[in-house]
Amino acid sequence: MDAVCYKAAKAPIEIVKAPIPKIRDDQGDFIAKFPLVPGHEIVGVIDKIGNDVKDFNVGDRCVADNTILCDACFYCRRGQYLLCENFESIGVTTDGGFAEYVAVESKKVYKIKNLTDEEATLVEPTSCAIHGMDRLSPPVGAEALIMGAGPTGLILAQLLKLNGASHVVLAANKGVKTEIARNLNVADVYFELDRENSAAQWAEIKQKYPKGFDVVIEATGAESVANDAINYVRRGGTLMVYGVYSNDAIVKWSPASIFGDEIKIIGSFAQVHCFPRAVAYLESGKINVKGMVTDVYSIKDYHKALDKLNGKTACKIAVKP
Prior knowledge:
With 321 residues, the chain is α/β, with parallel strands linked by helices. It has nine helices and 17 strands. α2 crosses α3 and α2 crosses α8 (275-284).
């Protein structure tokens, strides 16, 4: 089969011929380990099932939860599965979905009915956003600021509106993502940032919301934005660090302000056991992801997909066999 393969970190990608993975009896057809076939947001049609699989049939359209937990370490035995000391992920530490076939345990597979393949790629990001909401537990009537309009930022904004926020503000670089945000009506107010110099827009937010926000979600992954995010949190409010950052990123926050203003700072990483709720939200249409996938490429055109993504003119790109 054709598959995308990274032989090492930062190595050029290759399109390779790989063997079709063999399934076990319980399977259906940041921490990266190499060589690796990436792709952790997986949508497909069941081609073959193991002898012990129940409730699934060949031809079922499904999504796959990419997380792999050991169930035996200190944290798993405490029920803190996301902190699993042996945490692995399909498409990150084991071969993933940028291939014609992938083998997945049946307990990690969920049927879909109403979603297109492109929309279903958003189930995994929605699962991560749901975990973020669980961590955040925003008060009813909260006023929220979301920094960043990637797929999870757009989904988090909708989750906030659905779960009691009285006012949601979205601040993100002007472009295709903010256009999609407006089309989906994810927020109440939008601030489109100048990619080269956004100081004026951030000052405008400060002027319009001098008391800040009950909830601030930093979802850009930019060190400079994360460093400044705490300055938009209202006294007694919560900052959730949600973006993916380089390991050497550093922020400088005043402990006196955190202490005196009783600011809560939390992190949110990935998800476990959130797929059923994500599928339900997307299948019902209460979370709208239409249009978030802006481009679709074949495996053989994966290089073009990366070029498109790096060009900042796409929101989310799907790769198909």
